[in-house]
Design a protein that fits this description.
The protein is mainly α. It is built from eight helices and two strands.
Length: 161
């Protein structure tokens, strides 16, 4: 786990330095939404996280790996940069699940799995219940279903975060 976090942090840092993760200018409305929900935009770290979460909202699930028995979304620069922040982002990720879209949810669950966020299990169970009840309408493929299943299969073997 520590190796994954260090590697993810290193990749995110390199991506940021090389310009792969482009800064996103927030509109006043988006800034108010992020500030009122959970981010203290006066803190440089939280402002950076707010921008990353704003970028994550726009990332679409693509480039699926079909070489396995089930579809697996490839990680992307934004998801890696968020995970590189470490366990401190777990509450932000779980809060984002409350209103995230399908694509964003896939990457949030993937991030929570990468961080081995065992305390997010109730949030994932709630997400699965909402998914089954049609929260996302017609899902383009089984990526979210698979990420949820993998999380639930692995979570009981993780140390409590």
């Amino acid at each position: 786990m520590r190796t994954i976090i260090i590697f993810s942090w290193l990749m995110a840092f390199c991506a940021a330095v090389l310009g792969c993760v482009k800064p996103v200018a927030m509109t006043h409305l988006e800034e108010n939404s992020l500030h009122s929900n959970r981010f203290d935009l006066s803190s440089p770290r939280e402002a950076r996280l707010a921008r990353l979460f704003l970028q994550l909202r726009a990332v679409k699930v693509k480039d699926m790996s079909f070489g396995s028995l089930y579809p697996i979304p490839y990680e992307n620069d934004v998801e890696r940069a968020i995970v590189a922040e470490g366990p401190i982002v777990i509450p932000y990720l779980t809060a984002e699940l409350e209103h995230s879209g399908w694509d964003e949810s896939v990457y949030i669950v993937l991030g929570l799995r990468t961080l081995e966020a065992s305390n997010a299990k109730p949030n994932i169970l709630r997400l699965e219940n909402e998914r089954v009840r049609g929260r996302f309408g017609h899902e383009p493929d089984g990526a979210l279903y698979v990420q949820i299943r993998l999380f639930l299969r692995e979570v009981d073997g993780w140390k409590t975060a």
